[in-house]
Each structure stands twice: as structure tokens, then as C-alpha cells.
Amino acid sequence: MELAQVGRVFAALSDPTRREVVRRLSEAGSATVTDLATDLPVTRQAVAKHLSVLREAGLVSVAAEGRSRRYTLTAGPMTDAVGWMAEVGAAWDARLAALQRHLSRGAG
Amino acid sequence: LGNPGVAERKRVGEPITRTIELAQPPTVVWSAITSSGELAAWFGADAEVHARRGGAVRFRWSDGSERRGIVEVADAPRRFAFRWREVVRDGAGARVGEVSHVMFELEPSPEGGTRLRVTEVPGIAPVDAIGMTPSPLKARPPSPPRLLVSRG
Fold this sequence. Notes:
The complex is a heterodimer. Chain A is α+β, with helices and mostly antiparallel strands. Chain A has five helices and three strands; from the N terminus they run H-H-E-H-H-E-E-H. Chain A has helices at 3-12, 16-28, 33-39, 44-56, 77-107, and strands spanning 30-32, 60-65, 68-73. In chain A, helix 2 packs across helix 5. The model of chain A has no long low-confidence stretch (mean pLDDT 84). In chain B, 18% of the residues lie in helices and 39% in strands. The chains are: A alpha+beta, B alpha+beta.
């Protein structure tokens, strides 16, 4: 993988919503914009835009399915790393939010 | 070390870094991240942490999963780091997952609080080589492997 590509990958994954999209694709195997917009607190347009960034980074591929398009995480060596990043990042987001709540309870 | 495929794949793994601003001073935050009792209240797992270099860490989640590791840095109230790996128990016994390193860095903020940075990085180097010198903080895109040349 070339450095420019790696940069695009990590830029794509710097956004929490896109990490969540990656995580859900990794769990579900594949999904349409409608599937993702149903699960996530963002609009279809926002989901489509995030998918487009992920696609430019080479992280997802798209296939036409009837009148909609189905998105899949790209197979390959990046998939594990990306899955790891999405999973570990989401875990720390949740833990640090819980730490903040824990500390403010103690102080109150 | 005998598995170049795994090493190659892990090379791609970048450090995960999160930073949070906390209202409490570093000593209070230090206690929250290093005391077993306090960890249990927020980490999402039962924790058993011996916060000294070489001390054991163990986290057990309610779904039965478990991570074990060892403390690499305990520099109160500034840096706390450990490496850990998942321990999977099945009918055949226990297997371990891939190691990663976790580092907490606490920095006093001007308002009397703490800026807490957490970094988790997959085990890039062999555990024994990286164990005592974790340096996961220079997050940047992977560069091509460099040859180490000693001049002398």
C-alpha cells in the first residue's frame, strides 16, 4: 500500500461516524445506505457521504443491487487493521466517557 | 517472531489515541485509572491491577471475556502503561490473543484539571523487545521499514 493511500485510510477513519459505519459493515458483512441510516443517528445523505469517503480510501466497495447499492468492507490485509481500529477506538470512547461520569459523581 | 505474516499485518495497525479533558486533578485521575476498585466502577470490567512496574493486570468482562497483562510503566501521577492480551478459554484450554500496549498520559491543565491521553497500539515489535520501552506516542502514517545502521 502506498503512503498516500495509507494517509487516506487514516483520514477516513479519523471521523467517529465513519468508524461506526466501518464497525457495522464489519459486523453485518454488507449493508445499504438505508440499512446504515436506520441504525445510525445521521441522515441518508450523511451516510452516503461517509461511504463515499470510505470508498475513496479503498475501505469499502459497492455493488448495484436492484435500485440500491450495497456496500462491503474491502477484503485484504487492511481489513483486520481497520476492524481493530474501529473496535478499539469505540471501546476507548465508551470507557473515557464512563471515566468522566465516574469522576464527576465522585466530585459531586 | 516466527510468523512473518502476522508481523506484516500488525505493522499496518496504527496507534489509537483518545484525549479527554477532565475537571479533576492528575492525582484523582491517577487513582481512578490505577485502583482496582475504581476501575470496576467505570471500565466496564472487573479489574485487578497492581500498579507497579511488572505488576499483573487482569480485566474480566461480564460476557466471560478476559484480558491479562503486565504493567510496563507506573510513574504516578503522570504515566501508566501496560500491555495486555485476550485470554480465550475453550474446551481445549486457554489460548491468547495478540498483544497490544495501552498507555495513559496525564497532564495538568491550567484550570486545575487533567488532560488525559490514552494510546493503544498493537504489538508491532516482539513483546520482549518492546515490553520495557513502549513508545506508542508518535502517531504517524507507517513509513517504509528502515534499516538500522550503526555508525562508529
